[in-house]
Amino acid sequence: MYAEFETRTSYKYLQEVIKSLEEPICVLGGWAVFFHVNKNFQKTQGRPYLGSRDIDLGFHLDKNMTTEEMKSSALAKAIDVLQNRLKFKPISFRFFKEIHTETGKEIKTGQVPSHFIFPMYVDPVVDFIPKRFKEAFHFQPIDEPLLQFAFKDKTFREELEEFNKRLWVPKPELLAATKINALKGRDKEHKKIKDLCDIFALLWYSGEKPQLISKKIRQFTPKDAIKKAYDTIKEQDYEKAGNQVNHDAKEVKRIIETLTA
Known about the structure:
Structural class: alpha/beta
C-alpha cells in the first residue's frame, strides 16, 4: 500500500515529534491504530502492521476559548515546536517537510525532481473549532468532534508509554468510529483502502471480539451513519484490503458487516 521508505520515514519523524512535545500527547489516525493492533498482528502474521504516511495529533479546544487562551494552549505550543524547533513548514492546515527518497535526508535548498520527494506531513486535529480560531492561528483546522470523548473521559482512551513519553490513544471503538466517519468522504482510493484495513484490524486484532467492539462503536456513530459508510465499500475494496492485511476478502467483509448487524 505505502512504500516501506514512506512508513519508515513517518515512524522516524513520529518519534522525533513525540519526543519534542509536552505530555500527554494524543495520537490519532494510522499510527494510533498501529499502537493498538501491532502486537497481536505481528504475533499472528510475523510482520508489523501497516504503518502510516502521515502523523495525526489530537488537541482539545474549548468552544468558548478566547484568542489569548488559544495562543497559550497545547495546540499553540505544539505548532511552535513543529515550526521553530523541528522546522516543519506550514501549508494550509498541515505542517510538512520534504524528504529525499534516495538519501532519506531533508530537502532544504535546491531543486529536486518531484519523483524524489516524499512530503512528510503532520496534521493537528481538534475536537472543536472556537469562533476566533483563524484569528489566533491563521488557518482552518481539521476537526473531529468525537475526539472530545478521549479528552473528557479516561474510559475512552488508553494511556501508553512510547519513546519515553506518555501518550493518549483513543480506545479501539472510538478510533474505529473516526475511521468510519472518514470512510464515506474519501476521494482517494489508497486512503479508503487504508481506512478499511484499519477498521478491520481494530475489530480483529484489538483483543476483544469484533461483535463487542462493533456494539461499542454505536455509542459514537449512529447505525444509519455506519450504514452509509458501509454502502460506499465495493467488492474490490475488500479484495484490496484483504491483500494488505493477509486475510481473505470474504473474511474482511464478514467482520466489517458486524458493524451493521
